[in-house]
Amino acid sequence: MKKLLPLVFILFASFGAQATHNRAGEIRIEFIGGLTIRAIVTTYTVPDSPADRPFLEVRWGDGNMDTVVRSNGTNGEGVVIFTGVQKNVYISEHTYASSSFSGYTIAMEDPNRNGGILNIPNSVNVPFYIETHIDFGPFSGSSSTPILLNPPIDDACFQRIYEHNPGAFDPDGDSLSYELTTCLGEGGIPIDGYTIPPGATIDAITGTLTWDSPQQQGEFNFAIKIIEWRRLEDGSYVEIGFTIRDMQVTVLPCDNNPPIVHTIDEICVGVGDTLEFLVQAWDPDGDPVTLTGTGGPLEQTVSPATFNQPVAAQDTAESTFRWIPQCDHVQLQPYSMTFRAEDDPPGNNNHELVDYHTTFITVVGPAPENPAAAPLGNSIQLNWDQSPCVEVEGYKIYRRVEEYGFIPDTCEVGVPAYTGYQFIGSATGLTSTAYLDDNGGAGLTLGLEYCYMVVACFPDGSVSYASEEFCAELKRDLPILTNVSVRNTDVTDGSMYVAWSKPTELDTIQVPGPYEYRVMRSDVANPSNFQLVETYFDLNDTIFVDTLMNTQELEFNYMIELFNDEPGNEFSVGESDPASSVFISAIGTDNQIQLLWNETVPWINDTFQVFRQLPDLTFAYIGETIEQTYIDTGLANGIEKCYRVQSIGRYSIDGVVQPILNWSQEICTIPVDSIPPCKQDISIQSDCEELINNLTWTQLPECPDDIVEFRVLYTPTFGGNLQIISSHQAPWAQFEHGPLENTMAGCYAIAAVDSFQNVTISDTVCVANCSNYELPNVFTPGGDSYNDFFNPFPYAFVESIDIKIYNRWGLKIFESTNPDILWDGTNKDTKLNCSDGVYYYICTVNEIGLTGVEPRNLHGFIQLLRNPGQGPN
Description:
By secondary structure, the chain is an all-beta fold. Helix content is 2%, strand content 48%. The strands form 16 sheets. Strands 7, 8, 10, 13, 16 and 17 form a six-stranded mixed β-sheet that branches. It has a five-stranded mixed β-sheet with strand order 19-26-25-21-23.
């Protein structure tokens, strides 16, 4: 082979200037194992070209390259697949010395494209270059690149819609995206002058290239970048490689309309279920039409899908797609089936047109069967059957209080968040079909019904359908708190109402009695430090009133402990879940009071009712909410208001008092306007003739209407300190600043003041000076006292100038720094009169502006005309 290489290069060089050859191609990579890959380079060339390549060079991206012999055709000569199209396949393997986090780019470069490509200038002398990038990084593993099932050579009709789909199938189940990019030339550099034809777009999800009515006949090339994405555990995606397919489309004259494919867009199917749907191809011109399909389901080695093809018929062709997917077909990304319709119009000038339709099919694993839940102390034991799919690597468990009634749709996999179920844990391994829910070691709550769903997990992150809901509740062998309610509010004489439900499922063999309740209490300062406050010796005593307490300032927690008091066999049976009272706080703002509260209870509080005190000291209902906050509006500032909140709750089991009603303490506060006014929106118009800046301002309609004063703030320089230059009682929304003398430039803001002296300053708005320094284009220094001097028009805000005036030979005849100029038409050096004619000036005007003195450049011509008879300079 080494003796042959020089000849190969000589052949490449000899045909480099005139040979017409490469039309399209791509590189596919298969991972064999370890760091070894197989590259399949496929090119589509002009048959019988003198530049035909029996072998090609493949660059591996690590500094190595191999000469690879063509492998398809009877004797390796390639295969002609269409008129004017030869398919060539080159296969080689390579082992990398080490992995690279940045990956490797496998490339092939050939000296010649075919000539005459309209969107590649001088295409016959532009190298043909294709590449594929693979990643050996931590997320990609051994990922093969997608298989492109549709060839990259196609015809399009002049001024007709054109479509193409590469029919990409990723055997690893990775997600694919598509984009149009620039065709590549020598060294993989984008081709200079290449353009994507107008109207050409690609669907990033389906990969369908659409060219809206090509307006020029001839050959065009497109580069389609197909990117592989791998889903990570957190749900994000990382790019793991890409393939650039270089394809060619020939636009030909024709009088034809494309066919149309009708079928579904997306569907889900469970393992073992039969998926069946009809695909129709219809031609609007009534021409014969041929229907075919490509996609991953047809490429499976186990239980592949079936689709009778090709199907050709007059006007309408149809075929049925059928698939019974198995466990090894489950994957996170949907499979794609691309259906292609091609018409066959009569006549030599009516070329075939095509239409594509992509259907996405998601295969879902079966739901775990026969789930069951049973109480075990303060935990619940869960069990379910092993998944029939050996690919399953574990299970996820979800929980909520009370059954939802979830009936999943065909494409609802896993446990949707809207059901209220929350993930609580996992079981690792196919055979791990049990889980003990002890609420992370804290124990579950007595009195609540806990419901569960389980899903099976597959290696790529996909999950099965959810199991049916299954529920259980803890055994009622302990007291259940139902009330912690404030009876009256006072700093020293407050009281609380505490009640509970007695245990009804005591194990009298293990706990024979007699029994004792111990009422335990803690306050907010040390909520876990419960102290004994009362003892009861009858299971039917379930009410306690706690007195002489500071219920106005403190929040209290209660817990009921059950003791077995049998002499010689005394022990604690256990405690109820603790509960607190509803404790509210209040914030007075402008004409309103916001109430906020919190409570820690084992039951479910569905709603909260808010009550406000009347003048007779009774409380009246004013509203309710499901949140732990409420805003009472429309109040008069400065007048105190008092409130109570009642929670309305329940347990999810029978045999417990419902509804559960508990009162908060009383709280009072005063609405005070502490909210500043809205910012004003300023508009400024400058009157350059009157030297006045006109200010107007407004605010949004939804802003409070409580402004009593406006103040105008001003600084003549950008970044200067704003000073009050005017104020006025509201309503007031305009101000004239001027006439101004030194500068019209400046920055303004509006301060809005409400009745409580809250102040809001608007954004600062700046205006520049009027640039009104202008020069005339003629003057007549004739001594008649009319227009005898070259002067500017009336001006303002100019500190100085620097003007120079030149005659037509470029000689400077006058200069000045006086803003009034006052040139009388004489030469500055000779003092003689200048002759009539046109003179050129250059002037720098130093104007007073926002940032200080700001130069502005003027230049132009001035014509000098004087009375006849006066001599020249």
